[in-house]
Design brief:
Blueprint (H helix, E strand, L loop, with lengths): L1 H9 L4 H12 L4 H10 L10 H10 L13 E5 L12 E5 H6 L10 H16 L5 H8 L8 H13 L2
Antiparallel strand pairs: 1-2
Length: about 160
């Protein structure tokens, strides 16, 4: 909890906003919303299982990813890759990372941004100033910052504002 409290303090995030973000990341989506989306889009054959079946997929998996057990950003995956096959045995509950891992462009490092955050905070504490990207990459053990560049800009702005 110390890391979470530090994050909220450094980035000046109100507790209400943090709780809302956590609920948004860990709370399951509305079954009726999933059903409506699938029925509205031809990619899913303009069809969908019932809301009871969708709810059952979440609850039978204890609201956890079928592959890794994560509870974050869950979605229903068509195991055989056929988005029109809504047979219950074809539908698996997966987190974003595992679902993305099945695609042709899988996520290489699920904890990339977390590594960058931790390395940045450690270096900032040690150096007393915002570290360079090279220092962050070396400490985090990553070859590139990639999409986390904007996150680093955000971190720098918040850290400089709050010191």
């Amino acid at each position: 909890m110390k890391n979470i409290e530090e994050f909220l303090e450094v980035f000046d995030i109100p507790e209400e906003e943090a709780l809302a973000a956590l609920i948004g990341s860990f709370g399951p989506p509305q079954a009726s919303g999933i059903r409506g989306y699938w029925r509205k889009h031809s990619h899913y054959g303009n069809d969908a299982p019932s809301t009871e079946i969708i709810k059952g997929i979440y609850s039978s998996n204890d609201y956890r990813c079928h592959i890794c057990g994560s509870q974050k950003r869950l979605s229903i995956d068509h195991n055989d890759g056929n988005a029109n096959n809504h047979a219950v045995e074809n539908l698996k509950l997966l987190c974003f990372s595992c679902n993305r891992g099945k695609s042709s462009k899988p996520t290489q490092d699920k904890s990339h941004k977390l590594k960058i955050y931790r390395a940045t905070m450690e270096l900032y504490s040690e150096l007393g100033q915002f570290p360079t990207q090279k220092q962050i990459r070396q400490r985090a053990g990553v070859s590139q910052i990639g999409g986390a560049t904007y996150f680093l800009d955000y971190m720098k702005a918040r850290l400089e504002k709050n010191t």
